[in-house]
Amino acid sequence: MPIRLFLAALFFSLSLQAQTDSLNVMQAYRLRQGLPNFFAKLKAGGPITIAYFGGSITAASGGWRDQSAKWFQQQYPQAKIKQINAGVGGTGSDLGVFRLRRDVLTQQPDLVFVEFAVNDGGPYIHETMEGIVRQIWRANPATDICFVYTVAGNMLPTLQQGQLWPSMLAMEHIAQHYGIPSIQLGIEVLALLKAGKLVFQGKQEQYPDKLVFSGDNIHPNTGTGHRLYTEALIRAMESLKNNDHAITHPLIDPYTKDNWEDAQLLSVQDLPQTGQWTDLSNSNDSLAMQFRQRFPLLVKSTQPGSSMQINFNGRLAGLYDLVGPGCGQYEVTIDDAAPKRYPRFDRHATYYRSHYFFLPLLAAGKHTITLQVSPEKLDKMAILKTDNNPVGDLEKYKENACYAGWLLLLGHLTTETK
Protein backbone atom coordinates (compact mmCIF):
# COMPACT_ATOMS: atom_id res chain seq x y z
CA MET A 1 0.00 0.00 0.00
CA PRO A 2 1.39 3.47 -0.87
CA ILE A 3 2.47 5.42 2.20
CA ARG A 4 -0.10 8.16 1.48
CA LEU A 5 -2.95 5.64 1.52
CA PHE A 6 -1.51 3.91 4.59
CA LEU A 7 -1.38 7.15 6.57
CA ALA A 8 -4.91 8.06 5.44
CA ALA A 9 -6.18 4.66 6.62
CA LEU A 10 -4.27 5.04 9.90
CA PHE A 11 -5.77 8.48 10.51
CA PHE A 12 -9.28 7.16 9.76
CA SER A 13 -8.77 4.25 12.15
CA LEU A 14 -7.47 6.53 14.91
CA SER A 15 -10.37 8.92 14.34
CA LEU A 16 -12.92 6.12 14.77
CA GLN A 17 -11.21 5.03 17.98
CA ALA A 18 -11.13 8.63 19.18
CA GLN A 19 -14.91 8.98 19.01
CA THR A 20 -15.33 6.60 21.96
CA ASP A 21 -12.19 7.63 23.89
CA SER A 22 -12.82 9.52 27.13
CA LEU A 23 -9.54 11.42 26.72
CA ASN A 24 -10.55 12.77 23.33
CA VAL A 25 -11.72 16.14 24.64
CA MET A 26 -9.91 19.44 24.27
CA GLN A 27 -8.90 20.80 27.68
CA ALA A 28 -6.61 23.69 28.51
CA TYR A 29 -4.56 21.36 30.68
CA ARG A 30 -4.70 18.14 32.67
CA LEU A 31 -2.80 18.36 35.96
CA ARG A 32 -2.56 14.65 36.89
CA GLN A 33 0.43 14.12 39.24
CA GLY A 34 1.74 17.58 38.41
CA LEU A 35 5.35 18.77 38.53
CA PRO A 36 6.00 18.41 42.27
CA ASN A 37 9.77 17.94 42.22
CA PHE A 38 10.32 20.83 39.84
CA PHE A 39 8.31 23.30 41.92
CA ALA A 40 9.74 22.06 45.20
CA LYS A 41 13.26 22.68 43.93
CA LEU A 42 12.30 25.94 42.23
CA LYS A 43 10.78 27.36 45.42
CA ALA A 44 13.84 26.25 47.37
CA GLY A 45 16.05 28.36 45.11
CA GLY A 46 17.25 25.80 42.60
CA PRO A 47 19.46 25.47 40.67
CA ILE A 48 17.02 24.33 37.98
CA THR A 49 17.53 22.87 34.51
CA ILE A 50 14.58 22.86 32.12
CA ALA A 51 14.79 20.83 28.90
CA TYR A 52 12.66 21.85 25.94
CA PHE A 53 12.45 18.75 23.76
CA GLY A 54 10.65 18.97 20.42
CA GLY A 55 10.66 20.20 16.83
CA SER A 56 11.16 23.54 15.13
CA ILE A 57 8.39 25.27 17.12
CA THR A 58 10.37 24.52 20.27
CA ALA A 59 13.74 25.31 18.67
CA ALA A 60 12.61 28.79 17.52
CA SER A 61 14.68 31.58 19.05
CA GLY A 62 12.59 34.02 21.05
CA GLY A 63 9.57 31.70 21.01
CA TRP A 64 7.63 29.95 23.77
CA ARG A 65 10.80 28.25 24.98
CA ASP A 66 12.72 31.47 25.63
CA GLN A 67 9.61 33.32 26.77
CA SER A 68 8.63 30.70 29.34
CA ALA A 69 12.19 30.33 30.64
CA LYS A 70 12.26 34.09 31.14
CA TRP A 71 8.92 33.95 33.00
CA PHE A 72 10.18 31.22 35.36
CA GLN A 73 13.25 33.34 36.12
CA GLN A 74 11.12 36.42 36.79
CA GLN A 75 8.77 34.51 39.10
CA TYR A 76 11.61 32.84 40.99
CA PRO A 77 14.51 35.33 40.86
CA GLN A 78 16.42 33.52 43.59
CA ALA A 79 16.70 30.37 41.48
CA LYS A 80 19.43 29.96 38.90
CA ILE A 81 17.58 28.60 35.86
CA LYS A 82 19.26 26.95 32.89
CA GLN A 83 17.40 25.91 29.77
CA ILE A 84 18.30 23.16 27.29
CA ASN A 85 17.27 23.84 23.70
CA ALA A 86 16.69 20.28 22.47
CA GLY A 87 14.44 21.19 19.55
CA VAL A 88 15.30 19.85 16.10
CA GLY A 89 13.20 21.08 13.19
CA GLY A 90 11.22 18.63 11.10
CA THR A 91 11.58 15.76 13.56
CA GLY A 92 9.17 13.85 15.76
CA SER A 93 9.25 11.58 18.77
CA ASP A 94 10.53 8.77 16.52
CA LEU A 95 13.92 10.48 16.27
CA GLY A 96 13.47 12.05 19.69
CA VAL A 97 13.47 8.73 21.52
CA PHE A 98 16.90 7.97 20.02
CA ARG A 99 18.53 11.36 20.69
CA LEU A 100 17.01 11.90 24.15
CA ARG A 101 19.98 10.56 26.13
CA ARG A 102 22.57 12.62 24.26
CA ASP A 103 20.62 15.84 23.82
CA VAL A 104 18.77 15.95 27.15
CA LEU A 105 19.53 13.36 29.83
CA THR A 106 23.29 13.94 29.90
CA GLN A 107 22.51 17.42 31.27
CA GLN A 108 20.38 16.05 34.14
CA PRO A 109 17.21 18.14 33.72
CA ASP A 110 14.72 18.76 36.49
CA LEU A 111 11.85 19.19 34.04
CA VAL A 112 11.39 18.04 30.45
CA PHE A 113 8.77 19.68 28.24
CA VAL A 114 7.97 17.29 25.36
CA GLU A 115 6.52 18.86 22.17
CA PHE A 116 6.04 16.59 19.15
CA ALA A 117 2.30 16.63 18.35
CA VAL A 118 2.64 18.68 15.16
CA ASN A 119 5.40 16.52 13.68
CA ASP A 120 4.19 13.09 14.79
CA GLY A 121 1.99 11.14 12.38
CA GLY A 122 3.34 7.62 12.12
CA PRO A 123 2.04 4.35 13.55
CA TYR A 124 4.38 4.18 16.57
CA ILE A 125 3.53 7.28 18.64
CA HIS A 126 2.55 5.26 21.72
CA GLU A 127 5.81 3.31 21.52
CA THR A 128 8.09 6.31 20.97
CA MET A 129 6.48 8.61 23.54
CA GLU A 130 6.46 5.84 26.13
CA GLY A 131 10.10 5.16 25.32
CA ILE A 132 10.87 8.80 26.07
CA VAL A 133 9.05 8.68 29.41
CA ARG A 134 10.70 5.45 30.51
CA GLN A 135 14.19 6.60 29.49
CA ILE A 136 13.76 9.80 31.51
CA TRP A 137 12.58 8.04 34.65
CA ARG A 138 15.07 5.20 34.24
CA ALA A 139 17.82 7.83 34.29
CA ASN A 140 16.29 9.83 37.17
CA PRO A 141 12.89 9.10 38.76
CA ALA A 142 12.85 12.61 40.25
CA THR A 143 12.74 14.33 36.86
CA ASP A 144 9.31 15.79 36.08
CA ILE A 145 7.77 15.58 32.60
CA CYS A 146 5.13 17.71 30.91
CA PHE A 147 3.60 17.08 27.47
CA VAL A 148 2.75 20.24 25.52
CA TYR A 149 0.66 20.30 22.35
CA THR A 150 1.12 22.94 19.68
CA VAL A 151 -1.16 23.29 16.65
CA ALA A 152 -0.94 23.52 12.85
CA GLY A 153 -3.43 24.60 10.22
CA ASN A 154 -4.27 21.07 9.10
CA MET A 155 -5.41 20.26 12.66
CA LEU A 156 -7.94 23.07 12.96
CA PRO A 157 -11.11 21.30 11.68
CA THR A 158 -10.61 18.51 14.23
CA LEU A 159 -9.62 20.77 17.13
CA GLN A 160 -12.48 23.19 16.48
CA GLN A 161 -14.90 20.31 17.05
CA GLY A 162 -13.45 19.95 20.53
CA GLN A 163 -11.59 16.75 19.67
CA LEU A 164 -7.89 15.96 19.84
CA TRP A 165 -5.69 15.47 16.84
CA PRO A 166 -4.72 11.75 16.63
CA SER A 167 -1.10 12.34 17.68
CA MET A 168 -2.29 14.29 20.73
CA LEU A 169 -4.71 11.52 21.70
CA ALA A 170 -1.98 8.89 21.48
CA MET A 171 0.20 11.05 23.70
CA GLU A 172 -2.67 11.50 26.15
CA HIS A 173 -2.89 7.73 26.53
CA ILE A 174 0.74 7.71 27.66
CA ALA A 175 0.30 10.81 29.85
CA GLN A 176 -2.74 9.29 31.57
CA HIS A 177 -0.98 5.97 32.13
CA TYR A 178 2.01 7.63 33.85
CA GLY A 179 0.23 10.56 35.52
CA ILE A 180 2.03 13.16 33.40
CA PRO A 181 0.48 16.64 33.08
CA SER A 182 -0.34 17.91 29.60
CA ILE A 183 -1.06 21.38 28.24
CA GLN A 184 -2.92 22.48 25.13
CA LEU A 185 -0.95 25.54 24.09
CA GLY A 186 -3.42 26.40 21.32
CA ILE A 187 -6.65 26.75 23.35
CA GLU A 188 -6.70 30.56 23.25
CA VAL A 189 -5.65 30.47 19.58
CA LEU A 190 -8.81 28.50 18.80
CA ALA A 191 -10.98 30.83 20.90
CA LEU A 192 -9.65 33.96 19.19
CA LEU A 193 -10.02 32.31 15.78
CA LYS A 194 -13.67 31.51 16.54
CA ALA A 195 -14.28 35.06 17.72
CA GLY A 196 -12.86 36.47 14.50
CA LYS A 197 -10.02 38.20 16.33
CA LEU A 198 -7.21 36.05 14.91
CA VAL A 199 -6.05 34.91 11.47
CA PHE A 200 -4.15 31.66 11.55
CA GLN A 201 -2.01 32.31 8.45
CA GLY A 202 -1.22 35.58 6.75
CA LYS A 203 0.76 38.81 6.87
CA GLN A 204 0.17 41.30 9.65
CA GLU A 205 -0.11 44.25 7.24
CA GLN A 206 -3.05 42.52 5.53
CA TYR A 207 -4.95 42.24 8.84
CA PRO A 208 -4.17 45.39 10.87
CA ASP A 209 -7.13 44.86 13.22
CA LYS A 210 -6.43 41.20 14.01
CA LEU A 211 -3.74 38.98 15.43
CA VAL A 212 -1.88 36.98 12.80
CA PHE A 213 -0.79 33.68 14.29
CA SER A 214 1.71 32.51 11.65
CA GLY A 215 3.06 33.15 8.20
CA ASP A 216 3.20 29.54 7.06
CA ASN A 217 0.28 27.77 8.79
CA ILE A 218 2.59 26.06 11.30
CA HIS A 219 5.32 28.20 12.82
CA PRO A 220 3.95 30.91 15.14
CA ASN A 221 5.01 34.52 14.90
CA THR A 222 7.07 35.47 17.94
CA GLY A 223 4.88 38.30 19.22
CA THR A 224 1.51 36.68 18.57
CA GLY A 225 1.46 32.89 18.20
CA HIS A 226 4.39 32.18 20.51
CA ARG A 227 3.09 34.73 23.00
CA LEU A 228 -0.28 32.98 23.10
CA TYR A 229 1.51 29.65 23.63
CA THR A 230 3.51 31.11 26.51
CA GLU A 231 0.41 32.59 28.14
CA ALA A 232 -1.30 29.18 27.94
CA LEU A 233 1.72 27.55 29.57
CA ILE A 234 1.76 30.18 32.34
CA ARG A 235 -1.90 29.60 33.15
CA ALA A 236 -1.20 25.89 33.56
CA MET A 237 1.91 26.58 35.66
CA GLU A 238 -0.13 28.76 38.02
CA SER A 239 -2.30 25.71 38.78
CA LEU A 240 0.55 23.22 38.83
CA LYS A 241 2.76 25.22 41.22
CA ASN A 242 0.59 24.43 44.25
CA ASN A 243 1.68 20.79 44.17
CA ASP A 244 5.25 20.96 45.46
CA HIS A 245 5.63 17.84 47.62
CA ALA A 246 8.54 15.97 46.05
CA ILE A 247 7.95 12.37 44.93
CA THR A 248 9.75 9.57 43.16
CA HIS A 249 8.06 8.69 39.87
CA PRO A 250 7.46 4.92 39.75
CA LEU A 251 8.41 3.07 36.58
CA ILE A 252 5.16 1.12 36.36
CA ASP A 253 4.29 -1.62 33.89
CA PRO A 254 4.43 -0.29 30.33
CA TYR A 255 1.42 0.82 28.33
CA THR A 256 2.87 -0.89 25.24
CA LYS A 257 5.08 -3.94 25.66
CA ASP A 258 6.95 -3.07 22.43
CA ASN A 259 7.76 0.51 23.45
CA TRP A 260 11.03 2.01 22.29
CA GLU A 261 12.76 2.44 25.64
CA ASP A 262 15.75 0.53 24.26
CA ALA A 263 16.40 3.10 21.50
CA GLN A 264 20.09 3.82 21.00
CA LEU A 265 22.06 6.48 19.14
CA LEU A 266 25.36 4.88 18.07
CA SER A 267 28.35 6.22 16.20
CA VAL A 268 28.70 4.92 12.64
CA GLN A 269 32.44 4.56 13.27
CA ASP A 270 31.55 1.26 14.95
CA LEU A 271 30.28 -0.18 11.64
CA PRO A 272 32.42 -2.22 9.23
CA GLN A 273 33.06 -0.19 6.06
CA THR A 274 34.17 -1.00 2.51
CA GLY A 275 35.27 1.38 -0.23
CA GLN A 276 36.09 5.01 0.33
CA TRP A 277 34.62 6.86 3.30
CA THR A 278 36.00 10.22 4.43
CA ASP A 279 35.84 11.19 8.08
CA LEU A 280 34.97 14.89 8.11
CA SER A 281 34.99 15.21 11.91
CA ASN A 282 38.20 17.17 12.40
CA SER A 283 38.32 18.80 8.99
CA ASN A 284 37.47 22.29 7.80
CA ASP A 285 34.72 20.90 5.60
CA SER A 286 31.93 23.49 5.61
CA LEU A 287 29.14 20.97 6.19
CA ALA A 288 31.00 19.20 8.98
CA MET A 289 31.54 22.55 10.70
CA GLN A 290 27.91 23.61 10.19
CA PHE A 291 26.54 20.40 11.71
CA ARG A 292 29.30 19.60 14.22
CA GLN A 293 27.10 20.07 17.27
CA ARG A 294 24.58 17.59 15.89
CA PHE A 295 27.13 15.22 14.32
CA PRO A 296 30.47 15.14 16.14
CA LEU A 297 31.33 12.32 13.72
CA LEU A 298 30.26 12.75 10.09
CA VAL A 299 31.42 10.47 7.29
CA LYS A 300 30.93 10.87 3.56
CA SER A 301 31.36 8.77 0.44
CA THR A 302 30.94 9.64 -3.23
CA GLN A 303 32.18 6.27 -4.49
CA PRO A 304 29.41 3.98 -5.80
CA GLY A 305 29.55 0.62 -4.05
CA SER A 306 31.12 1.91 -0.83
CA SER A 307 29.21 0.38 2.02
CA MET A 308 28.61 0.13 5.76
CA GLN A 309 27.32 -3.02 7.41
CA ILE A 310 25.06 -3.26 10.44
CA ASN A 311 25.13 -6.56 12.30
CA PHE A 312 22.72 -6.41 15.19
CA ASN A 313 20.35 -8.27 17.44
CA GLY A 314 17.12 -6.34 17.59
CA ARG A 315 14.18 -5.13 15.54
CA LEU A 316 14.86 -1.74 13.94
CA ALA A 317 17.70 0.21 12.38
CA GLY A 318 17.88 3.66 10.83
CA LEU A 319 20.31 6.42 9.95
CA TYR A 320 20.61 10.03 11.12
CA ASP A 321 22.32 11.88 8.28
CA LEU A 322 22.16 14.80 5.86
CA VAL A 323 19.88 15.59 2.94
CA GLY A 324 20.91 18.26 0.46
CA PRO A 325 21.81 19.32 -3.09
CA GLY A 326 24.93 17.16 -3.38
CA CYS A 327 23.35 13.99 -1.98
CA GLY A 328 22.57 10.78 -3.82
CA GLN A 329 20.93 7.66 -2.44
CA TYR A 330 21.62 4.53 -0.45
CA GLU A 331 20.92 1.05 -1.72
CA VAL A 332 19.95 -1.02 1.30
CA THR A 333 19.94 -4.80 1.65
CA ILE A 334 18.26 -6.35 4.69
CA ASP A 335 19.25 -9.95 5.36
CA ASP A 336 18.47 -11.89 2.17
CA ALA A 337 15.83 -9.54 0.78
CA ALA A 338 16.17 -7.66 -2.53
CA PRO A 339 17.91 -4.28 -2.17
CA LYS A 340 15.82 -1.09 -1.92
CA ARG A 341 16.89 2.47 -2.62
CA TYR A 342 16.60 5.29 -0.06
CA PRO A 343 17.11 8.71 -1.71
CA ARG A 344 18.85 11.36 0.40
CA PHE A 345 17.49 14.14 -1.79
CA ASP A 346 13.98 15.57 -1.85
CA ARG A 347 11.94 18.49 -3.15
CA HIS A 348 13.33 20.79 -0.44
CA ALA A 349 16.98 19.88 -1.02
CA THR A 350 18.22 23.23 -2.29
CA TYR A 351 20.18 23.42 0.99
CA TYR A 352 21.59 20.93 3.49
CA ARG A 353 19.71 19.87 6.60
CA SER A 354 19.93 17.03 9.08
CA HIS A 355 17.52 14.22 8.34
CA TYR A 356 16.88 10.59 9.18
CA PHE A 357 15.25 7.46 7.84
CA PHE A 358 14.18 4.14 9.29
CA LEU A 359 14.26 0.73 7.68
CA PRO A 360 11.26 -1.59 8.08
CA LEU A 361 10.49 -2.92 11.54
CA LEU A 362 11.80 -6.50 11.76
CA ALA A 363 11.11 -9.54 13.88
CA ALA A 364 13.32 -9.41 16.98
CA GLY A 365 16.52 -11.35 16.35
CA LYS A 366 19.83 -11.24 14.49
CA HIS A 367 19.96 -9.23 11.28
CA THR A 368 22.53 -8.01 8.78
CA ILE A 369 21.92 -4.76 6.90
CA THR A 370 24.16 -3.30 4.22
CA LEU A 371 23.96 0.37 3.26
CA GLN A 372 25.68 0.94 -0.08
CA VAL A 373 26.25 4.13 -2.04
CA SER A 374 24.04 3.65 -5.10
CA PRO A 375 25.47 4.16 -8.59
CA GLU A 376 21.97 5.13 -9.77
CA LYS A 377 21.75 8.91 -10.10
CA LEU A 378 18.60 10.81 -9.20
CA ASP A 379 16.85 13.26 -11.53
CA LYS A 380 17.27 16.11 -9.08
CA MET A 381 15.76 18.82 -11.27
CA ALA A 382 12.58 16.78 -11.76
CA ILE A 383 12.32 16.28 -7.98
CA LEU A 384 12.76 20.00 -7.27
CA LYS A 385 10.14 20.95 -9.86
CA THR A 386 7.44 19.21 -7.83
CA ASP A 387 7.69 22.06 -5.31
CA ASN A 388 8.78 24.88 -7.65
CA ASN A 389 11.81 25.60 -5.49
CA PRO A 390 14.44 28.07 -6.76
CA VAL A 391 17.27 25.87 -8.00
CA GLY A 392 20.19 28.28 -7.83
CA ASP A 393 23.69 27.27 -8.88
CA LEU A 394 23.54 23.95 -10.77
CA GLU A 395 27.09 23.09 -9.77
CA LYS A 396 26.08 22.19 -6.22
CA TYR A 397 23.83 19.36 -7.47
CA LYS A 398 26.50 17.46 -9.41
CA GLU A 399 27.84 15.41 -6.51
CA ASN A 400 26.04 12.20 -5.50
CA ALA A 401 27.29 11.75 -1.96
CA CYS A 402 25.99 9.77 0.98
CA TYR A 403 26.57 11.06 4.52
CA ALA A 404 26.20 9.27 7.84
CA GLY A 405 26.34 10.62 11.38
CA TRP A 406 24.48 8.34 13.79
CA LEU A 407 23.08 4.85 13.66
CA LEU A 408 19.56 4.57 15.11
CA LEU A 409 19.04 1.15 16.68
CA LEU A 410 16.45 -0.79 18.65
CA GLY A 411 18.72 -3.58 19.84
CA HIS A 412 22.47 -3.93 20.09
CA LEU A 413 25.36 -4.41 17.68
CA THR A 414 26.95 -7.83 17.30
CA THR A 415 30.09 -9.06 15.58
CA GLU A 416 28.22 -11.84 13.81
CA THR A 417 26.48 -11.72 10.46
CA LYS A 418 23.12 -13.41 10.15
Q: What key phrases describe this protein's structure?
A:
418 residues; Rossmann fold; Jelly Rolls; 8-stranded antiparallel sheet; disordered N terminus
Short note summarizing the structure:
This protein is an alpha/beta fold. Helix content is 28%, strand content 25%. It folds into two domains: 3-240, 3-Layer(aba) Sandwich (Rossmann fold); 263-413, Galactose-binding domain-like (Jelly Rolls), CATH 2.60.120.260.
How is the secondary structure organized here?
Blueprint lengths: L2 H16 L10 E2 L5 H8 L4 E7 L1 H4 L4 H12 L5 E7 L5 H11 L7 E5 L9 H15 L4 E6 L6 H4 L6 H13 L3 E3 L2 H8 L3 E4 L9 E4 L10 H16 L22 E5 L5 E2 L3 E2 L6 H5 L8 E3 L5 E17 L5 E6 L5 E4 L9 E6 L6 E9 L6 H6 L16 E3 L1 E8 L5
Helix pairs in contact: 4-10, 5-6, 6-8
